[in-house]
Specification:
Strand order of the largest sheet: 2-1-3-6-4-5
Helix content: 25-40%
Order of helices and strands: EEHHEHEHEHEH
Structural class: alpha/beta
Distance between the termini: 24 Å
Radius of gyration: 27 Å
CATH superfamily of the largest domain: Ribosomal protein L4/L1
Number of helices: 6
Number of domains: 2
Mean pLDDT: 91
CATH class of the largest domain: Alpha Beta
CATH architecture of the largest domain: 3-Layer(aba) Sandwich
Length: 213
């Protein structure tokens, strides 16, 4: 069993939680993690670029002047790519860059990413975290106490509007619902932090059908 430390808001360790490495895939599959990260990167690309080819610009298809006898270099129509106002050679068109992975592979990649973070001692669990209202200064102080100021992914159970508004303006900090957690969210930041409720929800849901990784 793997042990994950549990801290309070001040950074003092108050316990630990256990998780079975077999439930996280047993070992880190690096090629799978790379495939997942490439997929998430590709799915963020818009692919909305558009350029006009020589057949799309306005102008005649007639040669500017005859081929021989003028003393000038040979020229084609005004819409030729090398002329000002001409069409683009090999014009780019809208393109769909999206990729897909089977759901089981996405879940395994997510769990492998969690396992990699645990092996690197980069996972924290925060207990008894209750904000009465949005407090960015308090949230930032908590991250400093947890040695997570260089960046973290903070997972909550459900959409916690108060915690989200407290940490959304802190650089390199992502606050996500644990049900929406994916491999890219985990690997893109040095630290992974769960609230205790979120960790229990994640651990109990391993292998289930409720998550949407």
């Amino acid at each position: 069993m793997l042990s994950i430390p549990v801290y309070d808001e001040s950074g003092k360790q108050v316990g630990s939680e256990q998780i079975d490495p077999a439930a996280l895939g047993g070992e880190v599959n690096v090629p799978l993690l790379k495939q997942a990260v490439v997929m998430y990167h590709a799915n963020r690309r818009q692919g909305t670029v558009a350029q006009k080819s020589r057949g799309m610009v306005e102008g005649s298809t007639k040669k500017i002047y005859r081929q021989k006898g003028t003393g000038n270099a040979r020229q084609g129509p005004a819409r030729a790519p090398h002329r000002r106002g001409g069409g683009r050679a090999f014009a780019r068109a809208p393109r769909d860059f999206s990729k897909d992975m089977p759901r089981q592979m996405r879940r395994l990649a997510r769990d492998n990413a969690v396992l990699a973070k645990i092996n690197g001692n980069a996972v924290r669990i925060v207990d008894r975290l209750a904000f009465e209202g949005p407090k960015t200064k308090r949230f930032s102080a908590m991250l400093k106490a947890l040695d997570s100021t260089r960046g973290c992914t903070f997972a909550t159970r459900g959409i916690d509007a108060v915690l989200y508004r407290s940490g959304r303006n802190i650089p390199r900090t992502n606050i996500v619902d644990v049900a929406q957690l994916n491999a890219y969210d985990i690997l893109s930041r040095p630290r992974l932090i769960f609230t205790r409720d979120a960790f229990v929800t994640y651990r109990d849901g391993l292998g289930g059908a409720k998550d949407k990784a």
